[in-house]
Amino acid sequence: MTDNRMAIRQVELEVLRYNPETDQEPKLQKFTVPCVNEWCVLDALNYLKDNLDPTLAYRWSCHMQVCGSCGMMINGEPKLACKAMLRDYSGVIRVEPLSHFPIERDLVAVADDFMAKLKRVKPYLIPGEKRTLADGEYKQTPAQLERYKKYAMCINCMLCYAACPEYGLTPKFIGPGAISLAHRYNQDSRDGGRDERQEEIATSEGVWECTFVGACSDVCPKHVDPASALQQVKVASTVDWYLEHFMSWVKK
Amino acid sequence: MSRRPYVRVVPRTTWFFRHPRYMRYMAREVTCIFIGIYSVMLLVGLVRLSQGSAQYEGFLAALRQPGSVLFHLLALAFSLYNTFTWFNVAPKALPVQVGDEHWPDSVVAGGHYVVWVGLSLFILFWAGVL
Ligand code: SF4
Ligand code: FES
C-alpha cells in the first residue's frame, strides 16, 4: 500500500479579500498553493501568508479546534479552518469570512455583536446559595453533570450564527451560541441565576426569534446542539408562563 | 487606521435558496398550510352537519369530486412529511434523562410514532372503520 498522506498537491484557493482602506467591496482572489495531502485549510492559508501574500488577514490560534477563532465559510459552509481537511475537498476551495457578520478585513469577521450578546446572557455561575471557602467544594453527581455537559462544550466559534438564517435576517436575535450557554448555566445544579438570564433570553430577541431551522446544530463543530438548547428554553418559558398566569398558587 | 466593516446583506425573500438545509426547513413549514386548509374543511363539514342532513349530503358529494380527492391525497402526503420531520426533531425539545444518561434520540422519536399509531388505531376503531 502506498502512503500518499505526505504527497504534495496543488490546491486552488479562492479567497474573499477586502481591504477597508482601499476596497469598495470584497472580491475573490485565486491562489494556487502547494499543500501536503494531510493538511487542513488553515495550513494552506498559513502557507499562503508565509510564501505568497503576507497581507492576507485571518484569525487563528490553537490549530486544534479548541480556541474557536478560525471559523470561516469553506465552500459556503461554516467550518473551523483547522478542522476542514484538504483531503475532503476536490477542485477549487472557496474561503470566505463567516456569513452574517460584517467583514473587518479579508477573512476576519467582526465579532463585536456576538461578544456583546455573550455578556448579556451572563455565561458564568451565579451561585444559588451563599457559600464560604470553609463550606468546601461544590459536589455534583454524574446525573447533574449530564444535564448541562453537552452545552459546556461551546468554544464560541460563531459557526452557528453563520449558519442561522434568522440571525442573518434579524441581527438583533441573541442567537444560538449565546442562548445555549445561558441554558448551560441554567441547567447547572450550582447555579441560581436563571431569573436574570430569562430576562434576556425568554424574549422576542431571544428564543422567540428562533423558528427551529436547526442549521446551528448541523454545523456546530463541538456537537453542542444549540437547536436543542433553544427549544428547551422555549418549553421551560412556556411552562413558566402557564404557572404564572393560571396556577399562581403553585410555587415554582 | 479607521474601521470600515463591510456588511453583506441577506436577501429577504430568496435567502432559503442559499442552502439545501434551508430548503428542507421551508418544505417543513410550507406543508403545514395543507394541514390548515384540511382543518378548515373539517370545520365546514361540522357546520354543514349542524344544518341538517341535506346540507351534509351535499358536503359529502363535494368531497367526492376529483379535485377534492386530489387535494386530500396531496394533503395526506404533505401532512405525513410534516409529521415525520417534526417527530424526528422532537428529541431536541423534549430530551429524557433517566439517571446518569439521556435516552437516545431514536427512543424519544420512536415514542412519538408509537403514540401516533396507537391514537390513530383507537380513533379508527372508535369511528367504526376497523
Ligand atoms: S454552539 Fe457550537 S457552533 Fe455555536 S459558538 Fe458554540 S461551539 Fe461554535
Ligand atoms: S485555530 Fe483554534 S479552533 Fe481553529
Radius of gyration of chain B equals 22 Å
The overall number of domains of chain B is 2
Class by alpha and beta content of chain B? mainly alpha
Tally of helical segments of chain A: 9
CATH superfamily of the largest domain in chain A: Alpha-helical ferredoxin
CATH architecture of the largest domain in chain B: Up-down Bundle
Q: H/E order of the elements of chain B?
A: HHHEEH
Shape category of chain B: flat
Give the SSE map.
The complex is a heterodimer of chains A (about 250) and B (about 130).
Chain A: E1 8-17, E2 27-36, H1 41-52, E3 71-74, E4 77-80, E5 93-96, E6 103-105, E7 108-109, H2 112-120, H3 142-146, H4 159-163, H5 165-169, H6 176-186, H7 194-201, H8 215-219, H9 226-246
Parallel strand pairs in A: 1-5
Antiparallel strand pairs in A: 1-2, 3-4, 3-5, 6-7
Helix pairs in contact in A: 6-9
Chain B: H1 20-51, H2 53-63, H3 66-93, E1 97-98, E2 101-102, H4 105-126
Antiparallel strand pairs in B: 1-2
Helix pairs in contact in B: 1-2, 1-3, 3-4
The structure holds iron/sulfur cluster (SF4) and FE2/S2 (inorganic) cluster.
Structure description:
With about 250 residues, chain A is of the alpha+beta class. Chain A has two domains: about 100 residues, Beta-grasp domain (Ubiquitin-like (UB roll), Roll), CATH 3.10.20.30; about 140 residues, Alpha-helical ferredoxin (Fumarate Reductase Iron-sulfur Protein, Chain B, domain 2), CATH 1.10.1060.10. In chain A, strand 6 and strand 7 form a beta hairpin. In chain A, helix 6 crosses helix 9. In chain A, about 30% of the residues lie in helices and about 15% in strands. The mean pLDDT of chain A is about 95. Chain B folds into two domains: about 90 residues, Fumarate reductase/succinate dehydrogenase, transmembrane subunit (3 helical TM bundles of succinate and fumarate reductases, Up-down Bundle), CATH 1.20.1300.10; about 35 residues. Chain B has four helices and two strands; from the N terminus they run αααββα. In chain B, strands 1-2 form a two-stranded antiparallel sheet. In chain B, helix 1 packs antiparallel against helix 2, helix 1 packs across helix 3 and helix 3 packs antiparallel against helix 4. The longest helix of chain B has about 30 residues. The chains are: A alpha+beta (about 250), B mainly alpha (about 130). Chains A and B meet through helix 3, helix 5, helix 8 and helix 9 of A and helix 1, helix 3 and strand 2 of B. The structure holds iron/sulfur cluster and FE2/S2 (inorganic) cluster (FES). The site of iron/sulfur cluster has 14 residues of chain A, from helix 4 and helix 6. FE2/S2 (inorganic) cluster binds next to loops of chain A.
